[in-house]
């Protein structure tokens, strides 16, 4: 399929983990910016919006990443932004993790990132421009004994590090790489009964909202002189207590 000329003029964002929560919020926000969106998740329904193409699949599977990239190129002819939002979080004491949990977290948080990002960068380099945004957690830098999450920090810490590495590796070729480092965000899995406890983790005294994350990502999108940035959207956790 040869993309029509009008699609070549429309910017395109790929968003992983797009079926709900932060991913769904980002999909809506990028459409409002005028982007076409390739939205992928393990369980995602087709969209009535012709500017949103959904791809169902496990991001840990290389075939899913290839199908996502093929849809972006065949339907819209370009890739401008990749947001690596998909992730698995399992919070428990380190010695209680099972090998199955380890494999699952590594597969999505790291292998999934690798499969789709290597493919996306190749296409971005052909056009000489592009933007990668990785979603990480402030627990990487601000561990909390009351919230043990070693597998999250192991994997999301890798994303934080590789963000800077990619930013420098590709800066001279027109690509940017940034990350958002999140505190606890109120999503569909948020435990309302723990609001007071969760709020106490953040100096601002509350959990974050999806809109807080969307605002941070859109700032990075609109800031062409910013690359290698780890933007903390964590209610002040990373600054101290």
Q: Short description, anyone?
A:
With 241 residues, the protein is an alpha/beta fold.
Task: Show the helix and strand layout.
Layout: H1 5-9, E1 12-16, H2 21-32, E2 36-41, E3 52-56, H3 62-76, E4 81-84, H4 99-127, E5 130-137, H5 150-170, E6 175-182, E7 185-186, H6 195-201, E8 208-209, H7 210-221, E9 230-233
What does this structure look like?
With 241 residues, the protein is α/β, with parallel strands linked by helices. It is 42% helix and 18% strand. The chain has helices spanning 5-9, 21-32, 62-76, 99-127, 150-170, 195-201, 210-221, and strands spanning 12-16, 36-41, 52-56, 81-84, 130-137, 175-182, 185-186, 208-209, 230-233. The chain has a seven-stranded parallel β-sheet, sandwiched between helices. It has a two-stranded parallel sheet with strand order 7-8. Helix 2 packs across helix 7, helix 3 (62-76) runs parallel beside helix 4 and helix 4 packs parallel to helix 5. It is globular, with a radius of gyration of 17 Å. The termini are far apart. The model is unreliable at 1-8 (pLDDT under 50).
What features would you highlight for this structure?
241 residues, alpha/beta, seven-stranded parallel β-sheet, two-stranded parallel sheet, 7 helices, 42% helix, 18% strand, globular, disordered N terminus
- The chain-level mean pLDDT equals 93
| C-alpha termini separation | 55 Å
pLDDT < 50 runs, ≥5 residues: 1-8
- The rounded Rg comes to 17 Å
Q: Report the oligomer.
A: single chain
Structural class: alpha/beta
Helical element count?
A: 7
Number of strands: 9
Give the strand order of the largest sheet, numbering strands 1, 2, ... along the chain. 3-2-1-4-5-6-9
Strand content: 15-25%
Rough outline: globular
Largest sheet: 7 strands, parallel
């Amino acid at each position: 399929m040869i993309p029509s000329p009008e699609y070549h003029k429309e910017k395109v964002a790929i968003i992983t983990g797009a079926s709900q929560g932060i991913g769904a919020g980002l999909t809506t926000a990028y459409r409002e910016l005028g982007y076409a969106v390739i939205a992928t998740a393990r369980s995602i329904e087709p969209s009535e919006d012709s500017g949103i193409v959904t791809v169902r699949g496990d991001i840990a599977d290389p075939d899913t990443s290839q199908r996502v990239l093929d849809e972006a190129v065949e339907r819209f002819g370009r890739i401008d932004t990749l947001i690596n939002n998909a992730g698995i979080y399992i919070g428990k004491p380190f010695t209680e993790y099972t090998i199955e949990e380890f494999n699952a977290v590594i597969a999505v948080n790291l292998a999934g990132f690798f499969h789709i990002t290597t493919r996306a960068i190749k296409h971005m380099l052909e056009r000489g421009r592009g933007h990668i945004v990785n979603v990480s957690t402030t627990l990487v830098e601000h561990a909390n004994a009351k919230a043990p999450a070693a597998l999250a920090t192991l994997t999301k810490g890798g994303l934080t590090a590789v963000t800077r590495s990619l930013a420098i590796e590709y800066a001279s070729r027109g690509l940017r790489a940034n990350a958002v480092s999140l505190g606890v965000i109120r999503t569909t899995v948020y435990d309302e009964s723990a609001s007071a406890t969760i709020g106490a983790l953040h100096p601002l005294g509350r959990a974050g909202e999806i809109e807080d994350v969307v605002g941070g990502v859109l700032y990075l999108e609109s800031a062409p002189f910013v690359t290698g940035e780890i933007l903390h959207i964590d209610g002040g956790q990373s600054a101290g207590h």
